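SEQUENCE AND FOLD
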Amino acid sequence: MASPGRDAVLREFGVSRETAAKLDVLVAELARWQRVKNLVSAATLAEVWTRHIADSLQLLHLAPPDARIWVDMGSGAGFPGLPIALSSPPGGLVHLIESNSRKCAFLRHIVRLTDASAMVHEGRLEDVCPNMAEECDVVTARALAPLVDLIAFAEPLLKQGATGLFPKGKDAPAELTEAAKSWNFAADLIPSRTDSQGRIIRIKDLERRPKTTQ
């Protein structure tokens, strides 16, 4: 029996049959590994298609049309990075950055099973991100840290022209206000397609705000 919401999500995002089969593998393996690895909140596992898959796929439609290289900071169980990697056009690549070795093992397992266009990097964001500044088109992170901290981690990528796509909850406007105290940037606040209170913050043209002297 198909998971709740699966068919509706596939229709909404125009997922091909081949990609749907790979997403099915991701969902099945997530459920299998969840029994011993605790990769996602147990409360969300039954709604994986609407809470995790759709929440990830919506970012594809907000990226620049020619975006090919993504960096997913703090990938965890692979959201949003793995669904994006499985759905990206030929030539795309998603860098999955995760410091937890058990989660990296899961990410590598899925990449092998699905032949996903992804590369797993086990390490700290501040060590890995600067090495990707020249090739990144989009940087994203989900449920990782406040926006002001995400921008700090992604600074090397955003300053080189990457677009930031950061899913947030109802406090997104407040996070934007707080981040603007330290950074100058162009920002869009986009309603989430999966959460009536959620917003996706799109960041471009980042510059560090000069410190004021007292």
User: Anything to note?
Assistant: Residues 6-208 form a domain with the Rossmann fold fold (CATH 3.40.50.150).
